[in-house]
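stage 2 :: seqdesign
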């Protein structure tokens, strides 16, 4: 029997978190932080070992499958597995969490509770990507909400209670749609209810049912992605979070929404997706332009980067709605790329706040001479965020653009208009990021800030964290196949399923942007 890598990556950090109360501690958290970092690193090594020993990128279906009957009368089983849609995100989750544990080194207030929540969140988020049962998915989705709420409410800024409450109301409220749709899908057609993805894929859902289910799930996952106008919790959460929580929110939490759209809305409800795909593209363009303009106007550093994240996630929506293997692959790569870049930027935001004790750009300026290493790190990460060629963001956004523009699922006029509008956001991104760098490190010097005793340059720990994130950012930018090959087979199979579903879609007045499926050819990924 092969080793249960996925189950171990889920249960190990959760089990280790339960042992934290017994870790010897002298009150300063030194022992606890080493324990937390060790557990997070071990979890990352477990996921890497699972990828190397149990995962074959050339196989499109589920791998490393483990199924144990849990509550058979309810149709609930412990069912885990990984394919190209989930395996890269499992690796990303364990990697970002390990770096977040290192970023949390300065935490001295209730360190045991902090690392308990961090490790519990690690297992819960891996479970979201690994489980293959919709009811189990709902439980994992809910499990990671409580740690985020407490991490915001206890260690956040002045308005932490407001931000945490808003987060839980938005995300927990939207989760009800997952439960309702999951139950409807499980009981559809009568017989013994089943929640497993493979069984749900085999059900012949009617088009009307798919539209109903798709709309409900789009709301649920749109909050997490987030999609404008369901996004307002994110700037508030980022505005009050600490650096390690920032990394988890930007690096992992938003990716759960994109993953769920691919797994449920596209894979399980392909005919519904054929009808809703144009809406996804439009919403993606709205995300890009609205969030970019809003980010440009922000004077709070955390909120500026938060709106930048919302803008970049718009490319994920366009890629998912592109009906092309290249565009969908770009959406997948954009999630991974933004996870790395977003985590690096928010870590730097936290490091900068620790020195300046302000988030207002108007109160910063003239610190570039005293923090040269910090300026270099900020510059590199900002260039990655604005999609500089040679970095992962450039490749992913280019794949989405080319995949959508060359897709034959839409009329030429629709493709041209959407591409031009999305390009506006691409142009705005370097403007607000480079102006942000100028205001932080140059501009008019704040004499009081420049004389602050805490205004020291980047420490070795901070340089190490950013270096760990920059290695894959640059590596993917220079050789994208190192990542795209891990999910190529699964994405091509997914797009083929979309294509077949398109043939069953009957034209209605609301779907006139989509051509007949006989004209749609799903292009293979390059290389």
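stage 2 :: out
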């Amino acid at each position: 029997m092969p080793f249960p890598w996925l189950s171990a990556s889920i249960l190990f950090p959760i089990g280790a978190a339960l042992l934290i109360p017994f870790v010897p501690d002298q009150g300063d958290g030194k022992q606890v932080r080493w324990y937390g970092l060790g557990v997070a690193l071990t979890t990352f090594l477990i996921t890497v070992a699972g990828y190397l020993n149990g995962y074959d990128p050339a196989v499109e279906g589920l791998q490393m499958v483990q199924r144990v009957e849990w509550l058979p009368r309810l149709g609930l089983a412990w069912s885990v597995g990984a394919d190209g849609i989930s395996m890269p995100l499992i690796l990303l989750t364990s990697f970002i969490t390990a770096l977040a544990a290192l970023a949390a080194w300065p935490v001295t207030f209730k360190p045991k509770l902090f690392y308990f929540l961090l490790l519990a969140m690690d297992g819960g988020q891996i479970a979201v990507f690994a489980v293959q049962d919709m009811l189990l998915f709902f439980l994992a989705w809910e499990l990671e909400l409580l740690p985020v709420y407490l991490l915001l409410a206890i260690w956040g800024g002045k308005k932490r209670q407001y931000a945490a409450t808003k987060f839980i109301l938005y995300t927990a409220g939207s989760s009800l749609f997952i439960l309702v749709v999951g139950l409807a899908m499980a009981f559809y057609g009568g017989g013994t209810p089943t929640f497993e993805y493979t069984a749900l894929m085999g059900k012949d859902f009617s088009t009307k049912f798919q539209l109903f289910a798709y709309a409900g799930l789009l709301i649920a996952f749109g909050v997490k992605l987030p999609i404008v106008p369901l996004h307002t919790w994110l700037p508030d959460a980022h505005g009050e979070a600490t650096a390690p929580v920032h990394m988890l929110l930007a690096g992992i939490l938003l990716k759960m929404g994109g993953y769920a759209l691919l797994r449920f809305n596209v894979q399980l409800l392909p005919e519904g997706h054929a009808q809703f795909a144009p809406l996804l593209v439009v919403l993606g363009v709205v995300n890009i332009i609205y969030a970019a303009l809003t980010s440009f106007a922000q004077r709070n550093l955390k909120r500026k980067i938060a709106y930048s994240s919302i803008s970049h996630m718009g490319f994920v929506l366009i890629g998912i709605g592109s009906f092309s293997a290249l565009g969908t692959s770009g959406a997948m790569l954009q999630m991974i790329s933004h996870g790395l870049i977003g985590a690096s930027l928010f870590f730097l935001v936290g490091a900068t706040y620790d020195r300046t004790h302000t988030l207002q750009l108007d109160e910063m300026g003239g610190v570039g001479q005293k923090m040269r290493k910090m300026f270099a790190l900020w510059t590199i990460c900002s260039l990655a965020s604005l999609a500089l060629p040679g970095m992962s963001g450039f490749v992913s956004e280019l794949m989405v653009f080319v995949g959508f523009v060359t897709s034959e699922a839409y009329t030429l006029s629709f493709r041209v208009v959407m591409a031009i509008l999305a390009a506006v956001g691409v142009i705005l991104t370097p403007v607000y990021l480079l102006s942000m760098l100028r205001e932080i490190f140059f501009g008019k010097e704040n004499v009081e800030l420049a004389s602050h005793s805490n205004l020291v340059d980047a420490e070795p720990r901070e340089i190490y964290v950013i270096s760990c994130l920059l290695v894959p950012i640059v590596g993917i930018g220079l050789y994208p196949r190192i990542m795209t090959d891990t999910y190529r087979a699964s994405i091509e199979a997914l797009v083929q399923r979309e294509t077949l579903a398109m043939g069953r879609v009957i034209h209605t007045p609301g779907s006139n942007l989509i051509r007949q499926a006989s004209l749609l050819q799903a292009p293979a990924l390059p290389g």
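stage 3 :: structure notes
- The mean pLDDT is 89.
- The first strand starts at residue 63 and ends at 71.
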